[in-house]
Amino acid sequence: MNQPIATLTDVKKSYRNGRHKVDVLSDLNLEVKQGEFLALMGPSGSGKSTLLNLLGGMDKPTAGAVEVAGKRIDKMNQTQLAGWRANHIGVVFQFYNLLPVLSAQKNVELPLLLHKMSAAERRKRAATVLEIVDLTDRAGHRPAELSGGQQQRVAIARALVTDPMLLICDEPTGDLDRSTADEIMGLLETLNREYGKTIIMVTHDPKAAEHATHILYLDKGRLSTEAAA
Amino acid sequence: MKYFALVWAGLFRKKARTLLTLASLFIAFMLFGLLQAVNHAFESGVSISGAGRLITNGRYSIIDNLPISHVQRIRSLQSVASVTHASWFGGTYQDPANFFAKFPVEPEQYLAMYPELSLSEAQKQAFIDNRTATIVSRSLAERFNWKIGDRIPIVADIWPGKNGNTWEFELVGIYDIAKDSNYADALLFRYDYFDENRVFGQGLVGWIITRLSDPNKSAEVAAAIDQMFLNSNNETKTATEQDFLLSFAKQVGNIGLIVTGILGAVFFTILLVTGNTMSQTVRERIPELAVLKTIGFTNHGILGLILSESVLMTLIGGGLGLLTAMLVVPGAADALRSLLPGMFLTYSSVLYGMLLALFLGVFVGAIPAIKAMRLNIVDALGEK
Ligand SMILES: Nc1ncnc2c1ncn2[C@@H]1O[C@H](COP(=O)(O)OP(=O)(O)OP(=O)(O)O)[C@@H](O)[C@H]1O
Ligand SMILES: [Mg+2]
């Protein structure tokens, strides 16, 4: 239960904007243990999404090591990373990012296309996770026919369907009203407690962060357990 | 195959736009098919069975008749396999608008000369046995609703008969014309009856048809024929059937050039239309494509996805267009048989069209697909 699942060691990330170099993260160290539900907070532009993208293998650090489940993912090439993401990571975005032309069911099946399994097996697995997020009766609906909260639940089902060891959520409630946000947070908490999913979530919402087991604050490239005054 | 649903859904993401693009592809490729068929009518000139035939006319005009004795003399030349003749009868069936050719011919020799005309042995025998017999092409019989045994009256304009202006023939056979032949519909009747019954012009024929034993000798034999009658009262002009048709086609213009020009303009337009559709569809979908990559689709997977969409689009639109051309051409060929014989859409033209559609799909899909492939997840997600 207390194995580290993700470790960042002396991670540095900088962007070059024309002649200016912007250091977003520098000498950052972080350890996330299996079974944790970590909420990451901090002011806008502090680098929270950048950090999340490094952990999810969607971006690479300028320097330092990113180790997830014993693998140095900063050393992988694009194709290896794509395969690694398909097998180990589930991602939930603020704006759901579902494919508008596909039904909820087909959106959830999407990640399974990259795995060896029959169409029947794909259908069965998608139906199972849609049941977990309580959307069985909307499986045939397209995203445009669903509310924001329902779309986000479809997105969570899509992130879960491959049974990833790490769930990454970037402001999953950022576009939702209070009560819908509470619903989604309740769902994430259930996934963490009952299904043992390790979750790393970025949020601006202190009430959302209360559902997490740990909270970390990122400011001026540094991580701390205390919010800056 | 499991990605097909994804490709299909992507293609019809914007239904109206895709349908319009498909419609322009459809029209372009149908036009391609039709023009290929028209081109075939002009370019093939002589069908396979018609290869190696020479046509001999009067030297100064194709309406000058020739003495039938020329036939025997041509038969004596080297490399000549067989010789027969035909004549222009003119005449009208019921109404001058009912235009079709009517030729007095030697039944056995003429049918042997044109193996692309086929009819049953019994009907052929009836044609040989009855002096007033006639045979017609199937499309003529259908056009005028003629049945075997019908009597067909033709009113003469050039050749009055001994019993008056109306010649009456008994329909004994209906022949089929081989698909790839450019033979025009004609009513055929017997020359011996024609020659005996006409008021004047006995012993004259319209033109002489010569089959060569060696098709490669056509130029030499044609020259030998014209040489033989030089300085006689009936000088001749001999050409291959192909040259004869081509010289006719040249009066219409350079068909090949016109066809190429039209197709060039059409495909240039199609290139712009489909290219625009593909680049728009990628531009609109940048965040979606980033999500696919996040989920684990590789860069090459995304490249393949967009290329498949593009190729699927051109193959569907092009395929439907070519299919329609295939369905339309036989009917058009029948309708235009007396005007433009030999319209035919070959399988190789269809195959060529499909390859063109495939190539078009790859060509217009390539740049958007490469753009999509190179999308960086972090940047692309930020474009929301
Ligand atoms: N592709 C890029 N090129 C240049 N600068 C970038 C790029 N992506 C991010 N940045 C910069 O890095 C910094 C951190 O960005 P990031 O998106 O990680 O912040 P964030 O903490 O997620 O902010 P928010 O709460 O607003 O989402 C910002 O100053 C941003 O301008
Ligand atoms: Mg962010």
Which keywords apply here?
heterodimer; A: 229 residues; alpha/beta; Rossmann fold; six-stranded mixed β-sheet; 28% strand; globular; B: 384 residues; alpha+beta; four-stranded antiparallel β-sheet; 14 helices; 12 strands; 54% helix; elongated; binds adenosine-5'-triphosphate; binds magnesium ion
Description:
The complex is a heterodimer of chains A (229) and B (384). Chain A is an alpha/beta fold and 229 residues long. Chain A has a domain at 4-101 and 166-224: Rossmann fold (3-Layer(aba) Sandwich), CATH 3.40.50. Chain A is 32% helix and 28% strand. In chain A, β7 (166-170), α6 (178-195) and β8 form a beta-alpha-beta unit. The mean pLDDT of chain A is 89. Chain B has 384 residues and is α+β, with helices and mostly antiparallel strands. Chain B has 2 domains: 4-45 and 254-381, no CATH class; 50-251, no CATH class. Helix content of chain B is 54%, strand content 16%. Chain B has helices at residues 4-11, 15-43, 69-75, 107-113, 121-129, 138-144, 191-197, 218-228, 241-252, 255-284, 286-295, 299-335, 347-374, 377-382; strands at residues 53-58, 66-67, 80-86, 101-105, 117-118, 133-137, 151-155, 166-177, 186-190, 204-205, 207-212, 236-240. In chain B, strands 4, 5, 6, 7, 8 and 9 form a 6-stranded mixed sheet that branches. Chain B has a 4-stranded antiparallel sheet with strand order 3-11-1-12, sandwiched between helices. In chain B, α2 (15-43) runs antiparallel to α10 (255-284) and α2 (15-43) packs antiparallel against α13 (347-374). Chain B starts with a helix and ends with a helix. The model of chain B is unreliable at 46-50 (pLDDT under 50). The chains are: A alpha/beta (229), B alpha+beta (384). Chain A binds chain B through residues 50, 53, 56, 58-59, 78-79, 82-87, 91, 93, 95, 97, 99-102, 106, 110-111, 113-114, 119, 158, and chain B through 2-3, 5-6, 9-10, 12-13, 287-288, 290-301, 377-378, 381, 384. Bound molecules: adenosine-5'-triphosphate (ATP) and magnesium ion (MG).
